[in-house]
Write a structure and sequence with these properties.
alpha+beta; 35% strand
């Protein structure tokens, strides 16, 4: 019985710790990074969109094991000029 409780606690802690770090990836971004550098830090985006010289990378990252948030990275003329959580900057376009 004790072994079963320890295993359950172990797996729950891995789940919580693994998910908690996902949304913190955004903190490793900097203005001026290239798209390749963003993908190296954040991974492949869930989707992208673009118009003229602006490209938006969209990420759905888990903040904790209960929910996830949308984060956006705006790349203008090949460099990051904005990034943050959905709604932080209004419309990116």
């Amino acid at each position: 019985m004790l072994v079963k409780r320890v295993l359950i606690l172990f797996f729950l802690s891995i789940l919580v710790l693994g998910c908690a770090g996902s949304a913190k990836k955004i903190n490793n971004l900097n203005i001026g990074m290239t798209k390749a550098e963003v993908i190296e830090v954040m991974g492949e985006p869930n989707y992208t969109s673009g118009a003229n010289d602006v490209e938006i990378l969209s990420y759905k990252l888990t903040s904790n094991s209960l929910y996830s948030d949308k984060y956006f990275v705006r790349i203008k003329k090949g460099k990051v000029d904005r990034f943050g959580q959905q709604g932080s900057f209004g419309s990116f376009y």
